[in-house]
Amino acid sequence: MADANEFETGDLFKDPEGFYEPEKEPSFAEHHMLSGQTVRVRLVGDHPLYGNLLWNAGRTSSHYIEKHAHELIAGKDVLEIGAAAGVPSIIAAVMGARTSVMTDYPDPDLVGNMRYNAEISAPLIPKNSSLHVDGYKWGSPVEPLLAYLPTGATGFDVLIMADVVYSWREHDNLIKTMQMALKKSPDSVALVIFTPYQPWFLPRTETFFPLAEKNGFRVTKIFEKLMDEVLFENDPGDAKLRRTVFGYEIRWADDQLQ
Predict the structure, then answer these.
(1) Can you give the pTM of this predicted structure?
(2) Does 108 have pLDDT greater than 80?
(3) Where does S-adenosyl-L-methionine bind (predicted)?
(4) Which of 42, 130, 169, 227 has the fewest Cβ atoms within 10 Å of its own Cβ atom?
């Protein structure tokens, strides 16, 4: 009978070289502010939660925040959810927000990348502004996020929600986060800005807004901007819609403030 040691089995459980595509290396992107300043951010190389792109809605949100910073941002407390690279949060801090909190799904790669971007942007941020980074799952308790606010603050003045409402299955959780995080004030606002990258889902995406109205909010469309180019050239669907960024303000309904 042959000795078992005579048989060479090799490494049966080792994947052959080249079986998996190599992970993409992180890349960098630049956002050019209206002021002429440049914010440079790192993007994760490849990620199922899309932290590897600088989205049109994020760029447009950042320009909107910069343009309206005096009344919208300066001295205010700001929370961004679904931040990815976090450009809008960084711009809010640069433009003088008292507190900016940048969040995305509590995945180590995403959170670590956001933290890196916050650190390299620090020289642009004035001393009276603070920028924080944390992981946050939509609909979860917001007490850990509220802990970043100055003593006495009861909620955030501004919520930045860029390209998050595409996930209609998460609409209830997004509404829940708004209810818990947005300060009860007529001046508080959630900026909901998005592009229908899959235009055939636009009707489902837009169900977010009547749902918000049913849950104590008032919705106002503030702009519709046509970008020069689509973000994904080879994607199907109406090219004009895929180039369009829609912007909405969501505020507390009057009966919620009484």
Answers:
(1) 0.88
(2) yes
(3) 55, 82-84, 104, 138, 162
(4) 169
- DSSP string across 36-85: S-EEEEEE-SS-TT-TTS--HHHHHHHHHHHHTHHHHTTT-EEEESS-TT
d(C-alpha 78, C-alpha 97), whole Å = 7
Sequence ranges of the binding site: 55, 82-84, 104, 138, 162
Q: At which residue do the structure tokens 């199907």 appear? A: 236
CA distance 176 to 161: 13
Q: What angle do CA 127, 133, 160 make, to 5 degrees?
A: 90
d(CA 128, CA 65): 18
- Angle, vertex CA 100, rays to CA 218 and CA 30, nearest 5: 100
Q: What is the residue extent of each domain of the chain?
A: 27-256
User: What percentage of the chain reaches a pLDDT higher than 90?
Assistant: 79
What is the DSSP secondary structure assignment for residue 125, as one 8-state letter?
A: S
Average pLDDT, the chain: 90
Choose the CATH number for 27-256 among 3.40.50.150, 3.40.50.880, 3.40.50.300, 3.40.1350.10: 3.40.50.150
Average pLDDT over residues 233-256: 94
Sequence letter at residue 225: K
The reported pLDDT for the residue numbered 49 is 45
Res 6: pLDDT: 53
> Residue ranges for the binding site for S-adenosyl-L-methionine?
55, 82-84, 104, 138, 162
